[in-house]
Specification:
mainly beta, 3% helix, globular, 14 strands, 5-stranded mixed beta sheet, 1 helix, single chain
């Protein structure tokens, strides 16, 4: 089976930027459908996907971690956990950037070590919750857990 970059095909645009101690790669892929008669809009039905990855300590390809926003102002957004540290907050430097005003700039961090996920609140104003329980210190995450960050709820999905 082809990977998602090969499936989308044409128009790969790649840029790199410094982020802490490793490099972030942002890839944007665009694919236009075959030209249709009567269509003079080149941007019509363009498929676009963006993936942001850090080169350091990527997860083995057989495992996939998805964070899906299930309620809040970012409803429907999906984030893929591919680094050993996944930062959550409003600030642009976070891996999961949320627009919720009740989310702190640097709200919490999820650690992925040996396929074990743990979350830690970064002394945020409103705290972080897992399945409704306010966390203090670190808390282990499993597939199906619901994180509440500000007014935003995020479902954790781990497939092996």
């Amino acid at each position: 089976m082809k990977n998602w970059l090969e499936q989308l095909g044409n128009g790969l645009k790649k840029k790199e930027k410094e982020a802490s101690d490793d490099v972030v790669v942002e890839e944007t892929i665009r694919r236009k459908p075959p030209h249709r008669k009567g269509s003079n809009n080149d941007r019509e039905n363009v498929t676009e996907a963006t993936r942001i990855a850090r080169h350091a300590q990527e997860i083995p390809p057989r495992e996939q971690i998805v964070f899906e926003v299930v309620s809040g102002s970012d409803y429907g957004r999906r984030f893929f956990g591919i680094t050993s540290e996944i930062k959550i907050g409003r600030q642009l430097e976070n891996h999961i950037q949320l627009s919720d005003p009740k989310v702190s700039r640097f709200h919490s961090v999820i650690y992925n070590q040996d396929s074990k996920l743990t979350i830690e609140d970064l002394q945020s104003t409103n705290g972080s919750r897992v399945n409704g329980e306010l966390i203090t210190g670190k808390k282990e995450l499993v597939s199906g857990d619901i994180l509440k960050i500000g007014e935003t709820e995020i479902r954790v999905d781990i497939t092996k």
